[in-house]
Design goal:
Elements lengths: L1 E6 L5 E7 L1 H4 L5 H14 L60 H17 L3 E4 L9 H11 L5 E5 L4 H7 L5 E5 L5 H6 L2 E5 H11 L1
Parallel strand pairs: 1-3, 3-6, 4-5, 4-6
Antiparallel strand pairs: 1-2
Length: 208
């Protein structure tokens, strides 16, 4: 098992804990991790984009000019795809379904791979607890400064606290989740993962 320092909100080491090897210490599976990210991206697409075909565009019911004798190319409708204001050929339709599927075993493996990468890249910070005296954003910013993290941050707690929710909601670079809400996309997208010790235990119990 890999040991990792446990810090307080001042950035000081309190103790160290051992991370579960089967959750935070596996050899990441890049193929499964890639599939999980593609699944998250595809399932986020609404599929509401749509264009009109030549059959759906209004107008163009009569032939613009007679077939022969004008010297111009023959045309059957002003709503053909090559005409201005014409219909679109082979354009996207609302029936398109971008949803992908991945079995439960692969989803768990992808999540473990993402967590293991955080440990390998030294992007995991474990706190003994995350309790704030107020709901001020400044207090949360001071904690992040103490931990020396300033870019995209994922904060994972065992239970959501009102003060923590209110203190983080105005920080554009911080995403707050409970331990049972974590997902592969959010973990990979974050440059730093801050988790409380209780949240780490909850994650390990869920993924073992």
């Amino acid at each position: 098992m890999k040991k990792i320092d446990v810090l307080n909100i001042k950035g000081e080491k309190v103790k160290d804990i051992k991370l579960a090897e089967e959750v935070f210490g596996i050899t990441p599976n890049d193929a499964v991790l890639y599939d999980a990210l593609m699944l998250a991206s595809s399932n986020a697409r609404q599929g509401t984009h749509s264009v009109k075909s030549r059959a759906e565009v209004s107008g163009g019911g009569r032939k613009p000019w007679k077939q022969k004798g004008t010297g111009r190319a023959r045309q059957g409708s002003t709503r053909a795809p090559h005409w201005y204001h014409g219909g679109v050929a082979f354009g996207p339709q609302t029936e398109t379904n971008y949803t992908k599927k991945q079995n439960r075993k692969e989803r768990r493996l992808a999540l473990k791979s993402a967590l293991s990468y955080k440990v390998l890249d030294n992007e995991l910070i474990v706190l003994d607890e995350l309790k704030l005296n107020s709901n001020k954003t400044k207090e949360m910013k001071d904690i992040l400064n103490n931990l020396k993290v300033d870019r995209s941050i994922l904060v994972v707690v065992d239970e959501l606290d009102d003060n923590v929710i209110l203190a983080t909601r105005n920080l554009n670079n911080v995403l707050l989740l409970s331990a049972d809400e974590i997902n592969t996309m959010d973990i990979v997208s974050a440059r730093a993962l801050i988790a409380t010790e209780a949240a780490v235990k909850t994650i390990e119990e869920a993924l073992k």
